Amino acid sequence: DHYGEQQQQQQHSPQTWQPLEQCLKSSPASHNSDSSSSHIQPLELPNSADLHWFSADANGDNQREAKRHLLRDYLRERQREFTNYSDLLVHCGTWNVNNQFDDSFDLTEWLQPPRDQRAPDIYALGFQELDMSPLSNTMTYITQRSDREEKWIRLCQRCFPSSHCYSIVKTVRLLSTFLLVAAKDSLRNDIHSIRFGTQATGLMGFGPNKGGTAVRFQLGDTQFTFVNCHLAAGEDKLENRYNDFRDIQQKLKLMFEGTAGRYELLSHVGDAVGSHVTFFFGDLNFRLSGVSKEAVEARLFDTERPGAVEELLARHDELRRARAQARYGNIFLSYSEASIDFWPTYKYEIGSQRFDSEKVRVPSWCDRILYRAEDVRCEPLKYRSQHSYVYSDHKPVTCTFNTQVARVDVERQKRTIKRGVQWLDSLENAVLPQCTLEPGHEVQFGELSFSDTYRASLTLRNTGRVSASWQLMPTPGGEFSGVHASPVESRIPIGGSETIMLDATLGPCQWPQAVQRWAAGKADSAFAPGDVLVIALIGGPHIFAVPKGDIVPSCYGLPLACLCRLREPVLKTDRQSFRRLLMDCLESAGSSETCS
């Protein structure tokens, strides 16, 4: 299942060394001509004529691919030579408003920066349970616009800092999960390649009552992604929340609206290489587990023992515990979260600061803001909750980030590319990936018995000067007989290694043929001559590993004529005598008939 999942992801994702290349190729020229998928990716890579030292043989494409890979590494190390960076202040907020709205709501504390901070350049505000009325939900499907949505937009605009003018970049709504992204007017013209999308994860896995909304845009040569979500509720629904988080990452499709009103797919929101800075926030619904409501309240109100918030989070927070578990960690570990020093954000009695007493919910930090960044700095400045708000059973949460916008100087970049090509010309032999197998090309399994599993390992070490991507090639007959490998593909960084575990099991399909080879006196009878492990380096040579081993004869897989002539158990019979007896039986009866 894991291998199939990887294959499915690869069908939707480009190679990791060329962000969004396939997606950009499929988009209209008007949308990819003025955008750079990465500020470390050349705006225009050298064409085939520039790569003059490549031969035009069958491996030419692989060689060009390897050179582009190496050139990208070269540019990544020198990106500051041709890139200018400027600071950008991003204000992310999330609030489950519990279907509440009043035009008198004062959002100043939620939206205004602290006194020692300048006005944000970008606002990204996520709402959950924006409007739960049946009429509004019906209107959402008919018009994709609701009156409540417009009211919240106007209320937010009214409470933005008065020292600057802000324009709406994009709004996206999935039933009652609503995302609003706004920017200073001075930046609005620099924002382009706007993409957006939604992913429902609610009832039966596709109901819009839960899910995520996302907006991605490019500012300068840096891509920003904002994801607002509402994950599965319930104190015993950790698995559901994990599945929702994963589905939003892997399935939420980012689209852009064409000039003719068409919507075309560009990428998935979870493409780590598709965005330099990603903010993931909302009512994630992660709870405190293994502790009672009374114990949480007692610890919070115990003023003689400081550090209650960190203690409760460290011991009982589902999100932190999930990040430490291998089952969930892979999808959460790529994100970071600022330190929390505010009280739980859920569940409160509406109109008061008291924790809810009706449903006896354990107070928890359900509303969170996560982030990740690549190639640019992203530093959280202030992570806080607006505890004074009593409009909803959730408290709003904000986090302000100081991040960067990268802008490529094209002329300086071209000069760097030219130097890179000249450098590559002198390193022709170093362009192709190179790996070695340890301890060697032969995999020794020893003696194998029928139906037992034997384990061996190989270490694939990257000895080249570029990272190496590899995959296991199937043999013409399918899976090599009796041997199963894990993993079957990966990417090895320079100087790194990958341990490949091999499990050999000779079952009913392999054992009779192995018995015949053993009877004929062939070495390494456990495996057929074609049972070769082929490791293909992407853009490089193939590496071969040969499984070795003999069988331990037993009654399994023997002709009945041979069994009838045995005077004692197989394991106690002289091997040479037994081998001659077995060969006589096989020759007299015919191998094919005997095997059947």
Automatic annotation (TrEMBL):
PANTHER family: INOSITOL 5-PHOSPHATASE, LD06095P. It comes from Macrostomum lignano. It comes from the Eukaryota. One of its GO terms (molecular function) is phosphatidylinositol-4,5-bisphosphate 5-phosphatase activity. Residues 86-409 form the Inositol polyphosphate-related phosphatase domain. Residues 1-42 are annotated as: Disordered. This is IPPc domain-containing protein. InterPro entries: Endo/exonu/phosph_ase_sf, Ig-like_fold, IP5, IPPc. One of its GO terms (biological process) is phosphatidylinositol dephosphorylation. Coiled coil: none annotated. SUPFAM superfamilies: DNase I-like (SSF56219). Gene3D superfamilies: Endonuclease/exonuclease/phosphatase (3.60.10.10), Immunoglobulins (2.60.40.10). It holds the Pfam family Exo_endo_phos2. Residues 1-11, 26-38 have a biased composition (Low complexity).
